[in-house]
Amino acid sequence: MIKISRNHPRAHAWPNKARLICVLQIMAAMNALLEKYNRPVPRYTSYPTVPFWEEKIDTERWKASVREGFTRSNTDKGISLYLHLPFCESLCTYCGCNKKITRNHGEEDPYLETLLREYGLYLELGNDPPLIRSLHLGGGTPTFFSPANLQRLITNLLKKSRLHPEYDFSIEGHPNNTSREHLETLHALGFNRISFGVQDLDRKVQRVINRMQPFEQVKLVTEQARAAGFRSVNFDLIYGLPLQTLGGMKHTIRQVLALRPDRIAFYSYAHVPWTSRSQRLFDENDLPSPAEKLHLYQTGRELLLEQGYHDIGMDHFALPTDELYLARQEGRLYRNFMGYTVQPAGMLLGLGVSAISDTGNAYAQNDKQLHNYRQRISQGQLAVQKGYFLNEEDVSFRQYILDLACTGKAKLDPIHLPLFRAYSFPILRELEEDGLITWNEEDVRITGNGKNFIRNICRAFDLHLLRSTQQQSVFSKAI
In this structure, is the dihedral angle defined by the CA atoms of residues 414, 419, 421 and 423, taken in order, positive or negative? Predict the structure, then answer.
């Protein structure tokens, strides 16, 4: 222990200096962990993850799985619907989503007809009108479609369905083309949550990613959404984009904080030009270095936490009044292909080109080519292309991953001890040494520091990945 004389002329400054040294030591330790665990890791919106699915799915077996899913879900759970609306008027060069760039709004009607026809094909597999618990419109740019067409789509879907008493409708919107009429129409249809793709508010960054949207426009649509009655507004932000700087990130976060969105998804930019051709338009010299990217993340995260947001995990932050935070605290959080959700639906049906479905014991993804998707549906066939049927081991290890991602802990079944000892325990020991978890042969618990590394912790139970010799570079880095 250091003794400080009260008569020393600088004694009053020493405690502050000691605290500063302590803070710097903590920051250095965190930096070391971030660098160590900044490796390619899945986001675990499914298990097994998509790279381990079969390239060709057995369609008849898939139909049988959907029938079982309808039977299971038409009790109190209900189903989730995801509708992929792929059209965008301009290309955002960072984007890795399945999209079609066009200014031809004549594309709207035929695509919506195909969606409704696809839903009809699925309805033939059930005995009763499905009970819809949640519905999400994603893209692409869903607000590419006119308010009248979105109204027609949802109205026709609901005519053939029943609504769960606790239903939840949400949509992704582009700040530049989401109108007051969009918002009022959607809210009248039952939509109560909206997510705006903000990404970055630095004009230099916006220019290079071809997404020019002034702060004033983001502010306007946020205010209009709240005035229309939307109870939750989410912003998507990205760190690691070309030309991003620390000063620019601070400016973006502070502007976002001024609008106080209920949730913020703070995603890591994944530079994968070999799969996303638009990213080849970047000069790679303009991308932040790995160390700079880590600093961007840390800075953004600290600013969010300082202003009352809570780290839900896996890139998501929420205010303490938001359902996502409350569900996390109460152990009611779930995770699916759209990320975290509070709706425990029994089956997720994905409609539209490239959309993914999850029946609970099987996954399927629609054809990624718009022409092929339309052709299959027009011929009265489901458009599923690739997928996976889970075995008992998959179901168990998926639950371990879901429990860790959603509750921060997982109870381990002794029946899997041989697998744990071969694959999981060596990783858990290292995670424990780094202070990210506590564990024994009965359970695993994520520590406060471990919340920053949930994807790395889940990896300890990813048997497909741990057994594989496949290149892990197909996944984005954890930070």
Answer: negative
Based on the number of CB atoms within 10 Å of its own CB, is 342 exposed (0-12), middle (13-18) or buried (19 or more)?
middle
For the entire predicted model, the pTM comes to 0.89
Say if strands 409-411 and 443-446 run parallel, antiparallel, or are unpaired. Answer: antiparallel
Q: How far is CA 247 from the centre of its chain?
A: 26
Q: Alpha helix locations (H) across 203-331?
A: 203-208, 215-228, 246-259, 290-306, 323-330
What the chain holds in terms of domains, given with CATH numbers, is 50-356 (3.80.30.20), 392-469 (1.10.10.920)
Query: Looking at the DSSP assignment, which residues form a beta bridge with residue 82?
Result: 136, 350
Phi, psi of 407 (to 5 degrees): -120, -10
DSSP 138-198: EES-GGGS-HHHHHHHHHHHHHTSEEEEEEEEEEEE-TTT--HHHHHHHHHTTEEEEEEEE
Q: Which residue has the tokens 């299971």?
A: 72
pLDDT tens digit string along 98-141? 899 999 999 999 999 999 999 999 999 998 999 999 999 999 99
Assess contact for 294 and 38: CB atoms under 8 A: yes
